[in-house]
Write a structure and sequence with these properties.
Layout lengths: L2 H23 L21 H10 L5 E4 L3 H7 L5 E5 L2 E2 L3 H12 L3 E5 L2 E2 L7 E4 L8 E6 L8 E2 L8 E5 L5 E10 L5 E13 L2 E6 L7 H4 L4 H9 L8 E4 L12 H6 L2 H24 L14 H14 L3 H19 L9 H11 L3 H16 L5 H18 L1
Parallel strand pairs: 1-13, 2-4, 2-13, 3-5, 4-12
Antiparallel strand pairs: 6-9, 7-8, 7-10, 10-11, 11-12
Amino acid sequence: MSTKGKLYSALVLFIVIGVIYIDASRKTPINWFPSYVNHHKIPFGMYVLDDQLPLLFPGTSIEQLSISPFVYLKKEERTGTYLFINDNVQFGNSELGELMEFVKRGNHVFISSHRMNLDTLGFKTKSLITNNFEETVFIKLLNKTFKGKEYTFDRDFDNQVFTEIDTLNTVVLGNTGYYNKEDERTEEGVNYVKFTYGEGTFLLHTFPDAFSNYGLLSGELSHYAAGVLSYIEEDETLLIDNYYKTGKFQITSPLKFILGNKHLKWAYYTLLIGVLIFIIFEGKRKQRSIKVIHALKNQTLDFTRTIANMYFEQKEHKDIATHKITYFMAEIRTKHQLNTTIIDHRFYGMLALKSGNTIEEVTALFKYLDFIRLQNELSASQLVTLHKKIEQFNKQIQ
């Protein structure tokens, strides 16, 4: 790897580590999402209430339900008090019908939500609007046991009140409203009622914030929450709904699931850094393969053999002999530096002297070459004899 490549790799690695360090060291912002999930410890989770319910209802069996009320109540005849606490609770018609049958048999349903569709029961709600430039919200329970104690809440919320109530079967249990900066009460409405239906009751409440972690840990508001829950029968089974929860966990993608968990997120980042380091160092250690280029082969001998075999198979003995004599004469000119134009006794003597053969052997060879040239056709034995005589001549030279 070049110096510039090393510099760029180090820079990228430094930036990645810096981003991870900044992300890990920064202060996590407060999550104000209204989840109302029983194991969430964020301000508007319900971890505290879930932890304290056994103390608030010591003689009561508590069941956590993660299925819809319609499915749960359809299976068999259930008994107890069904508890719904969420930012928004919207029942379908069939589901509300099952809840009404559940209450009609002598059971109870507690609902605490900013928004709920209970038109079938004759209840409607609206947001309590104030024109005060500066206002303070108050929430209180009307029973004399609570001595008119008023509570406040320092977070903005959708303050819902009941606008239509079945007065024949309903008891008002609590209300809410606003004070202006002169401590004058300006607006007020009902936010907690008890509705008798058949042998049982509906407890309807529009301030679920009181049961959140933030509400229960905000001073005296926990006393208000305990007062609201005090209307629930203690000797009955308490059915806690975990189906209607705004913050109910749902996996929409694997990556979201990984990044949503602190430990899995850092494992994922560690894996990415490891892959980056592996690429850098593996790229440094291993070079691109170099193609092996083989030297060109001398195919002259193979070509000659191929041509010779072609002539031999076609019985062109005369042509083969002619080529062989021509090649032999070329060797004499090249190796022995003799002119083959005039072949006489002087040529025989010079060739015999340079080749190591006798004059008689040289003369006999060339007379046989002349014999071969004069023939129109040659037999295989004559061609073989020519080959042997030339090879014998060359062997004497070697």
